[in-house]
Write a structure and sequence with these properties.
The protein is mainly alpha-helical and 211 residues long. It is built from 10 helices and no strands. The chain is 79% helix and 0% strand. The longest helix is centred in the first third of the chain and has 25 residues.
Length: 211
């Protein structure tokens, strides 16, 4: 860990800043534009921003994936320029940490250093829980869907183009929708079902291009 930190400490600080901006922007956008629109902008804009920054080709599958994400996620929402700006800021933060962690030799250490830095950036905005349940929830969300997920994501970046990894990560809202249906008896609308199908086909087309 010391060698990785000593080699490029600014990289991990910038990665932590990207993680902090990603999360803060997303949660600032939700009360202003709704979960659907915040998700579409934050997750959908990231592959495009990454492709442009990394000078990778903007593929038809990428734009198809964004269209599918839009159908899947946007069922309601309100227009709010600050909310849209916050969601775009979230996409920019996600793009930054993705680009900085391409080909990282040690994904686990990169995630640890990035999240430690990100936690320090977010500390002024934090409110500590007052119950054991609150601490357990923080531990779960911090370790499983955040730290573990990003470690695996960084590991994938060692063999995938950054834009391709970002497109594959769009499986997240599809999985969330499936969990909602199976575990919470939520109903899938026709546009959302079409969006999920389009999104899955686009991800398959993007990954097929790797062969």
């Amino acid at each position: 860990m010391r060698s990785l930190l000593a080699a490029r400490p600014s990289r991990h600080v910038a990665s932590g800043l990207g993680l902090a901006v990603c999360q803060l922007g997303y949660f600032m956008a939700i009360p202003r534009v709704g979960v659907g629109i915040a998700t579409v902008i934050a997750l959908g804009a990231a592959p495009i921003l990454i492709s442009v920054a990394a000078r990778e080709r903007l593929t038809p599958a990428l734009f198809t994936a964004v269209a599918g994400l839009t159908l899947l996620s946007v069922t309601s929402g309100t227009a709010s320029l600050p909310g849209v700006a916050a969601a775009v800021l979230s996409a920019a933060g996600y793009s930054l940490t993705t680009l900085l962690n391409r080909n990282t030799p040690d994904p686990l250490t990169a995630a640890l250093l990035g999240f430690t830095s990100g936690a320090l950036f977010l500390a002024p905005f934090a409110a500590l829980p007052t119950t054991l349940t609150g601490w357990l929830l923080i531990a779960y969300f911090g370790l499983i869907p955040t730290a573990l997920a990003y470690t695996l994501f960084y590991a994938g970046l060692r063999t995938l183009r950054a834009s391709t990894a970002a497109v594959i990560a769009l499986l997240e809202p599809v999985v969330a929708t499936a969990i909602g249906i199976l575990a919470f008896q939520e109903h899938l609308t026709a546009p959302a079902a079409l969006g999920a199908a389009v999104l899955l086909l686009a991800i398959a087309a993007q990954t097929r291009a790797l062969k």
